[in-house]
Amino acid sequence: MTKIEGIFTPTVVLLDDQGEINEGELRRYIDWLIDNGIYGLYPNGSSGEFTRFTADERLRIAKITIEQADGRVPVLAGAAEANIRETLAACETYCEYGATAVAIVSPFYYSLGSESVYENFKEIAINSPIDITLYNIPMFASPIDVPTIQRLSELDRVIGIKDSSGDITSMMNMIRAVRPNRPDFVFLNGWEAALVPMLLMGCDGGTNALSGLVPDYFRRMYEATRAGDIPTAQQMQFDLIGLFETIINPFEFPMGVRAAISQRGFKIGNSRQPMGEQQRNRSEKILDTMAPHLAAMGYSNLEEFCV
Fold it and tell me: Do the domain assignments include residue 66?
């Protein structure tokens, strides 16, 4: 299996004026991400607003992504559905499409305890034809605590975890608990503000929304960290935090991410979630608010940035 490591982009879905998937533009965006050095792609994640699309649309988004990647980079396909049967059906389809592995978020809507979370993933892992990475995002779904991750890591199909909690201590405890018995287990950080610290503590990479905006920057930051160039990685992380807070904090996620990526010359369309006047005004001004942070990161020529 292709090892899952480096920076994977959780891709947004580009839409046309009617709110339908803009396949041509999405394929162009995927090519641009790959050409700019991204390590892998992650369709149907939180940045991709997977709950705002139908099951058939999610299949189509994954298929387009896998086809366009064409083996150039691995694809970690989001396979989370509202119940186990549909999740397993998605796992089977993505396996047929040629995905490297799937990512499955912990059960959402119903708040479940650790034992139920374990049984949910165990049932999927036993029956899935494709390898699974767990997806821990407590702000949207039942949390996966460290003892549960340790138990799930004993299942062959469970090969890793993407953690978007932003909790550095918790993620270090995950690595400390799992690595001794599963040295091959993959840890991916999903919180931009903690990427370099977690790479230094043993993470294999990241699945970061803003890598869809500045993929080359994330690759350089990842490689500087891996090469032991800590001063460079540290400064890049500090500079990234300013951009991250500008895009994430004032918006309802992932509206700011969509607005930012639209500035790179892609016809991104409006989200399926309607925006109010305040959000629209922020979106229209996002390039101005990003500009000083982009300059600090080396993107001082905004005309070139927006092409």
Answer: yes
